Structure formats: C-alpha cells, structure tokens
Amino acid sequence: MGEFERITDGVYLVGGMDYSHPQDAAVYVVSCGEGLVMIDCGAGKDPDVIVENIREAGLDPGGLTTLVLTHCHVDHIGSASFFREKFRCTVVAHDLDADAVESGDPSLTAARWYNTRLPKTTVDSRLTGEHETITCGDDEIHCLHTPGHTPGSISVYIDRQGQRILFGQDIHGPFSREFRSDIAQWRRSMEKLLALEADVLCEGHFGVYKPGTRVEQYIRGYLDQYATEHP
C-alpha cells in the first residue's frame, strides 16, 4: 500500500523518509487538472515507491509534465533522470545550480555526504530570473530564487482556494563552504519568503506547517538561531 498525505485540494506529499526511502527528502505533487507538477523527487534509491504513492493518492503518474528541482542536493534530485526518462517530463532548475546537477559534482550535490553518486541528470529548463512562473492548466507555479543554502536554491508557491502554499525545501540550511552557501543571501531570501505571508509551508525534511502563524514562526526561528550562530 502506498503512503501519501493530502495537504490541500490537489496537493500531496508523496515521498520522504517516512513515505518512500530513508534518504529521500520530501517529494510533493501538485495536480493542475491537465497535468502534474512534482517538486523534488527524492534520492533515487527507490523511485518506484514514489510512483506508487502518486497512484494511491488517486493521481495518474503518466500525467507528470514538470519536475521542479529546488536545489542541487542529491537527496532532493537523485530520481530526476528516472522520472524524466519514464514520464518524459521537463526538468526545471535554477541556472546557478544546474551545472552541478548535470555534472554530478560530488561536493556541490552533497553526494559525498550520502556516500552515493548522482546519475547523469539533464536539466531541460534553466531559471535565471528572480521570479518566474510555470503554467500548468489554470495554475501558476511561482518559482522564487532564494539563494543561501546553495547559489541556485529556489522556493515554489501556488495560490489555491484562498490559500498560499509555499514549498520551501531546505530553507533551514545547513550552510557549508562545500555547498557554496551564503548566510547573508539566505537572510535576504527568508525576508522575501516572509513577505509572501504563506498559509502553508511544505518543508523538505521537517513536514508541513500551518496556519500562517506557524509558517512565520518557523522561518523567524531559524533567522534567530543563525543570528547567534552566524552573526
């Protein structure tokens, strides 16, 4: 039996350490009526489980049109080639992380941290702007450049049924020279996310936060923490 969590109408958590494989970061799917958009895709250890979870959520994985990679770390993107080849979806990433994705650099992709390798991965569409949108059916998938954790980190949000749903995968960090992290950029990115006043935060490792007061508390909590650790 597949495992999934319904977050709101047409938005599902279908992968992660408790849903697919212990090394998987969170995997989210948005149903747009005319197709599916996936946000990150796990570490690549057992992507068939994610496919089954999509089916259990009542969705057709064959409708996957777009895979958005929030940054270049292998626990988030290791299955990208699998989904691209199996479902012919378009793989999207920010230009500043795309070279690391395509080269499989063991440091920049954190593959060394996981004692693994990132398979050859093609990025079909490179985002270069501060705010770009992807259209899927009647939905607009907003992609914000939020550097800090990595140079090309992006955060994604959609507005649905009066709610703003933010996919902020690794907005908590960590920060490392090996990743080319930049704490000053990260602080500016977090202020940008606070200004969105999101009602729901879908995080990459720590679950789903709602309502908006909890989203704000989560982000401000890390701003306070790193103000002390990285003054």
Outline:
With 231 residues, this protein is an alpha/beta fold. It is built from six helices and 13 strands.
Q: How would you describe what is shown here?
A:
By secondary structure, the protein is of the alpha/beta class. It has one domain: Ribonuclease Z/Hydroxyacylglutathione hydrolase-like (Metallo-beta-lactamase, Chain A), CATH 3.60.15.10. It is built from six helices and 13 strands. The strands form two sheets. A seven-stranded mixed β-sheet has the order 1-2-3-4-5-6-7.
Number of domains: 1
Question: Could you say which overall geometry the principal axes of the C-alpha atoms support?
Answer: globular
What is the CATH level 1 assignment? Answer: Alpha Beta
> What is the name of the CATH superfamily?
Ribonuclease Z/Hydroxyacylglutathione hydrolase-like
The major beta sheet can be summarized as: 7 strands, mixed
> In what order do the strands lie side by side in the largest sheet?
1-2-3-4-5-6-7
CATH 2nd-level architecture: 4-Layer Sandwich
Helix content: 25-40%
Terminal CA distance reads 47 Å
Q: Using the coordinates shown, work out and report the CATH topology.
A: Metallo-beta-lactamase, Chain A
Given as residue ranges, the uncertain stretches (5+ residues, pLDDT < 50) are none
The total count of helices amounts to: 6
